[in-house]
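User: Second chain of the day. Same drill as before.
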Amino acid sequence: METLTHSSVLARFGYALSDPTRARILLALRDAASYPSDLAELIGVSRQSLSNHLACLRGCGLVAAVPEGRRMRYELADPRLGLALTNLLGVVLAVDPEHCSVSAEEGCC
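Assistant: Same format as last time:
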């Protein structure tokens, strides 16, 4: 396994957050672990779309799938991610909207 540099780790995290659906999944999992069907309903996407996003988030090392019988439950890969998301929200909410008024659907500034 290759060693990741700090910049590559942050790039991976940024990539995961760059998509509004993935960001919403991470925020939902910040509150509690969940099953894909419940996440799809909560976020308002198809199960196939959610599955693709969960695969991306697993590949980025941000979420983990935990088998429970025949079902898989998803949770943040590390509880510190929930704290990081909460802290990040506090910082981003303090940004002056005049200088960065892009909505999540439009992409990056």
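The two ends are 34 Å apart (CA to CA).

User: Great, on to the next one.
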